Batch of 2 targets.
Target 1
Amino acid sequence: MNIPLNIDWRQILLHLFNFGILAGGLWLLLYKPVKAFMDDRARQYEEREAEAEKRISEAEELRKSYEEKLASAEKEARLKLSESAKAADDAARETIEEAKHMAEQLLTDTRRKAEEERKELLDDAQHEVIQLASDAVRKLLVEQEEAYDSFAASFKDGTDNE
Amino acid sequence: MPKQKRKWFYLIVGGFLLICLLGSILVGERPKAESIQEVMRDAVLHESGRISLFGLLEVNPGLISAFVVTGILLLLAALLRIFVIPRFRRVPGKLQLLLETWVSFFADMARTNSPHHNAFLGAYLFVAGSYIFFGTVFELFGLQAVTLAGHSISLPAPLSDINGAIALGCLSYLVILLSGIVVNKLHGAVSGLKEFSLPISMSFRLFGALLSGLLVTELVYYSIRLSFLLPVAVGVLFTLLHAVIQTYVLTTLTSIFFGEVTEPHIKKSKR
């Protein structure tokens, strides 16, 4: 059969045979190993990416947990601080009260002591004044007695002499 | 480029162009052995430029080109497999990058156009694309062969032979049809058979595109005056351009139709 354009079935089959050999060879020698290398590398990168994402999510969780812990610690610290401040206030107030009480006590004692001392001094002074008065009286009396005696003596002498 | 070097560059290029122009004017036309019609007809039909295949068969020069291209590609692939691929690194060098780009271009094309089944398609596109590209570029080297008539001819692109183009076009259709049947059974077969014009269109598109490049080159070389400078643009640039275009066209068409016939078939629910 005369096919137009010089189409030849045998040559078509030979071209197919040639292409088959080329396909097998190129697939085996180039396409397969290069593709396998690329796929393997892509898989490794995907694994690394997954690992990195996993680590990032873990780190994020850890960060959240730390933040929560930090917030809780801050809250606790704030609470403790306020408790301490309150305790310090109470202690200070107590100390002040105590100091006031002591001061009042001291003042009272001092006043009492001063009063006692004043009383004592007054008593002493009174006693001394009395003593002095009595001494003075006694002295005066002695002097008067002596004067009297002298007068009496002089009178007696006078009388005797007469 | 420094100013002084640039000046020399322009002088050399200008001088070369001038010599070519003078040559094309001064050289006389040689007596033609055959008319332009005969040259064109022979380029298409290979009626007189046949070559003996090991003394067994008389074949078109395109078939010899196909064998040579296959041999060169397999040798290159073997060398790359032995010396380059075992030294592949995680961060690729220039040659590794070229190989990876070469492979991934077709693998990505297969994945894009046929998202469901693309492992086989990627390999097929890689081989077919490489064959078309290197086969077309092959004609630039002008390897010589002796015809049965004793003339010396330069070997053409394998796919500028109608038999080579039909083989690749029909094989591509066969790949599409069989993959449709394997994946989608009867529905795949029907989808594949609907595109019954595909083998003819693919074959003749390849043949026409490659042949047009060959004919333009033949036309240019027919006149010795035109063969001084013009082949640089016509021969090299046109060949490279349609090598890239035909590679892209055939692989894209194959991958699109492959994706269409292997698409999962969802039965429409009856109301």
Target 2
Amino acid sequence: MPDRTSRSTTDRMPVRKTYKLFIGGAFPRSESGRSYEVTDVKGRFLANAAHASRKDARDAVQAARKAFPGWSGATAYNRGQVLYRVAELLEGRRAQFAEDVRAGEGGSARAAAAAVDAAIDRWVWYAGWADKIASVTGSANPVAGPYFDFSVPEPTGVVAVLAPQQSSLLGLVSVVAPVIVSGNTCVVTSSSGRPLPAITLAEVLATSDVPGGVVNVLTGQLADTAPTLASHMDVNAVDLAGAAGDPELSTRLEVAAADNLKRVLRAPAAEPDWRAEPGMERMLRFLETKTVWHPIGV
Amino acid sequence: MSPAGKKFEYAPAPESRAVVTLRSSYGLFIDGEFVDTADGRTFKTISPATEEVLAEVTEAGPTDVDRAVAAARRAYQRTWSKLPARERGKYLFRIARIIQERARELAVLESLDNGKPIRESRDVDIPLVAAHFFYYAGWADKLSYAGLGPDPRPLGVAGQVIPWNFPLLMLSWKIAPALACGNTVVLKPAETTPLTALLFAEICQQADLPPGVVNIITGAGDTGRALVEHGGIDKVAFTGSTEVGKMIARSTAGTAKKVTLELGGKAANILFDDAPVDQAVEGIVNGIFFNQGHVCCAGSRLLVQESVYDEVLVSLKRRLGTLRVGDPLDKNTDVGAINSAEQLARIRELSEVGEAEGAERWSPPCELPERGFWFAPTVFTGVTQAHRIAREEIFGPVLSVLTFRTPAEAVEKANNTPYGLSAGVWTDKGSRILWMADKLRAGVVWANTFNRFDPTSPFGGYKESGYGREGGRHGLEAYLDA
């Protein structure tokens, strides 16, 4: 891929980036020592990305579980601030993201820039939800008796997110942000063929105020890590977006998810247009409703 | 003095059975009529209090399930989805009124078939059933205000399978929101408690509900499986065991069916040292001995703060000594019959395991009737988290007592279960209640009360207690494509 990073340079040898996993706020290589070749749309070499193993997936779940009490216990205002900060840093890396997206997805420079802009705006949109979800989805329940009774949304826990295969940044942001904004933590499998924007996003998260372990990113093959995540007894929910168009795989994962009754957001028949208005679905799916009763009296 | 309290002597006060007219046999309620089975069999439903045969009912076969689903689909396409929402609501209001009018009959029949005390079926189950229909009747023409989008659509045909512990109440939790949202239903009641569902079918006839909107097919596990796995339904709603819930989650994988599951529980009832002990003991007793402990959200693990352990145990045992176990139709009865021989065997087995694993078993002096299925209220002390009676759902009148020292330890122990349906907290300190309520991973938290239910109040679990909510605005989401 020499021409990609040396495009506007002179004779200077460019310094390439090593793309690694993102687990618990650190950037390890795969414990398996394996990597795989990532190419651009024309088949030219871009990078060697880490090929995550089942053990990496389990480590990532552990990191996500460890981060859950802190992240879910943070105030909604604080989560909103932290996520907005991520958007600020994304903005600063627009050029790099556009380059990553265009290399992986093809298309014009303008289209890649538009996808990046949409991804940043999507992130800002979700950040603003942090302290509004409870008002919109909670309720005071007028029970027929002397009780104060209210319902509040709470995060489901650790969510395994299979990011879309095609839309490597906008799609990724559209599935990660709604999961973490409410206090869930997650393990994300990136697009297998287009993993670079996910790792660049991880670099942004690592240098923002998002605590380590809230988002963990695995690159590699879906078939290697997804079954482990879907059957893992310490994962509470799974978003199968990345298995869109593969009913055999997504059914297998949904069956595995039943072992501990994970909440499942099923894979669509084909990857949707992520530019569409997202609605609340992806946030709601990873929330539990807790109802609290207390007697009223003197 | 014996730790058990003294019972007052009361003369028997049985509720009359005359209000109930039972047929000798019942067919399936499909397309507005009672019909004979095409490929099923018949079985008997008995009173668990006396083992008397109450009636013969039908075990629906696969062809019956096909017919019921087809009737529901026709009714959905031709009638129910075309009816103005306001009119749907009026049918539900009408049903609610008939339930109130026939409340005594329903309560007696429920106690006969299920074994629960008439005091509970009369004062809790049936009033809540009517309230549930009233509540969702009002939603039918207000769905666009439910916060689920501007134009939420019904799903189509719902397949619903319900348990035997609150037969008609669970029917109402399933049918009322389904119909209010514009769906039609095929419902299977539990094999040991089909009778109130069949009486409900008559109520649908009295209400002139269009044929096929509600179909009731009786049967056991095979009938339930045929319904849940039927290709003609759009929605599965199940209340029952976590084991069956997982089977349903697997069998519906890869389909477009929307699934809600309300499953088992192993709730902790947490008693702090500043709680008024007598009041808390009332709540603890209600938490585990209400409905013979056949309650998925029962407070089956009592966590007592160490400093008040002795005092609480004395008070608890005294209160248990005053519980009246016996004839479900007697108005003085507190604890009725265990629902089935099978369930009794399960309760006995786990209680024996409790003893074998080293917990100390205690029951008040208690005369049990000779016929029928009975189990004395039972308390286990010296229970640890590793004991099976502290981990597995017993679904009977058996309380396991554990202790804790700090609030953090109480939370740790309460959450140390794959279930997450409910929890109870007893303390006088408001800030502690809210702190505990925040930390407990359970769908319902009762603070200084327990086992309260209301149609406006969402109910459902975390983790392996299932997913989806029933009741309240949240309960609509299970039956809408929003």
